[in-house]
């Protein structure tokens, strides 16, 4: 069995799989909103309440792992722990209390794992073969990662041309901008747009879009939620979302609906989405800015990410230099 834990700024996620003759089967999984990065924008530290919430989730993850025999286990933390001045202390406490040895990874490592998680799209013919480039973006709780990728369909491989990390995600952007008016939404939009233009200046992606050579891969809760709204799902169905190919215009229309719901007080969305709109809108502003700069027509929705990338790399022994030193340690 293999296990991967992703401690993000907003969520704590665990995935446990078994492997039989190269085929993977999900044994157990866990996903809890912990908001570890709540208040980080103002204080530069993880708050006591956020650490306590997260510790509860990590104890639960440890209980799922304890007693099982693993070929490998790898646990990572991302933007909140990269940025917080007290992250090292918190992770030391996590190791002491739960036995989970969590490594803080760089933005590039985060991008590489997200790409590895989406690699099977090349094998399953999810991506359009007439387009040689992909722009992958992962909207997280504390940061947004962007990868500019060349696709080699003949060899079923991809080449990472460049990557970029914007230090804003749904949690930190919401704290930075008070979303009280439509103007606040466009302030978020303008802020993100100014950041992603730096990446465009280096890689000239717009020229490839004009040549119709680019498609999006959207890896985030924001994009999967927008797709779920589009499909009018009463209950989220991952099987119907993961690998779904859409027109970006469809997602932009959903964003307009969300803005109407928030600022014109129209009764459009179900209660399930109304409760999440405060966290959805920052993610929408990030996607809106990305798409405005890079108006790609096609998007593949990916309900996968770092956990899946870790599993993919472990099962092909590409993480062997990491997990020997970053594994599950049970304190007796």
From TrEMBL:
<dbReference type="InterPro" id="IPR050273">
    <property type="entry name" value="GppA/Ppx_hydrolase"/>
</dbReference>
<protein>
    <submittedName>
        <fullName>Exopolyphosphatase</fullName>
    </submittedName>
</protein>
<dbReference type="InterPro" id="IPR003695">
    <property type="entry name" value="Ppx_GppA_N"/>
</dbReference>
<feature type="domain" description="Ppx/GppA phosphatase N-terminal">
    <location>
        <begin position="15"/>
        <end position="315"/>
    </location>
</feature>
<dbReference type="GO" id="GO:0016462">
    <property type="term" value="F:pyrophosphatase activity"/>
</dbReference>
<dbReference type="InterPro" id="IPR043129">
    <property type="entry name" value="ATPase_NBD"/>
</dbReference>
<dbReference type="Pfam" id="PF02541">
    <property type="entry name" value="Ppx-GppA"/>
</dbReference>
């Amino acid at each position: 069995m293999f296990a991967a834990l992703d401690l993000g700024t907003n969520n704590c996620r665990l995935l446990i799989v078994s492997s039989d003759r190269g085929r993977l089967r999900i044994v157990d999984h866990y996903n809890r909103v912990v908001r570890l990065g709540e208040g980080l924008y103002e204080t530069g530290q993880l708050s006591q309440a956020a650490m306590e919430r997260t510790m509860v989730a990590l104890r639960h993850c440890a209980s799922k792992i304890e007693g099982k025999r693993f070929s490998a286990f790898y646990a990572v933390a991302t933007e909140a722990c990269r940025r917080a001045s007290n992250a090292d202390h918190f992770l030391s406490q996590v190791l002491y209390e739960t036995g989970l040895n969590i490594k803080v990874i760089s933005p590039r490592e985060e991008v590489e794992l997200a790409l590895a998680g989406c690699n099977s799209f090349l094998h399953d013919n999810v991506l359009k073969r007439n387009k040689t480039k992909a722009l992958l973006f992962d909207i997280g709780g504390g940061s947004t990662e962007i990868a500019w990728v060349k696709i080699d369909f003949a060899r079923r491989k991809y080449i990472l041309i460049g990557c970029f990390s914007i230090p804003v995600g749904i949690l930190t952007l919401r704290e930075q901008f008070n979303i009280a008016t439509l103007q606040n939404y466009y302030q978020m939009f303008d802020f993100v747009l100014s950041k992603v233009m730096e990446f465009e200046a280096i890689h000239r992606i717009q020229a490839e879009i004009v040549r119709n050579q680019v498609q999006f891969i959207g890896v985030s809760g924001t994009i999967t939620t927008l797709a779920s709204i589009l499909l009018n799902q009463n209950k989220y169905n991952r099987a119907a979302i993961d690998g779904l190919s859409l027109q970006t215009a469809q997602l932009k229309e959903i964003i307009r609906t969300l803005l109407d719901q928030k600022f014109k007080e129209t009764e459009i969305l179900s209660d399930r989405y109304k409760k999440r709109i405060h966290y959805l809108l920052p993610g929408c502003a990030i996607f809106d800015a990305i798409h405005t700069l890079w108006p790609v027509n096609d998007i593949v929705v990916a309900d996968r990410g770092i956990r899946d990338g870790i599993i993919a790399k472990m099962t092909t022994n590409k993480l062997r230099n990491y997990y020997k030193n970053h594994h599950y340690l049970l304190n007796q």
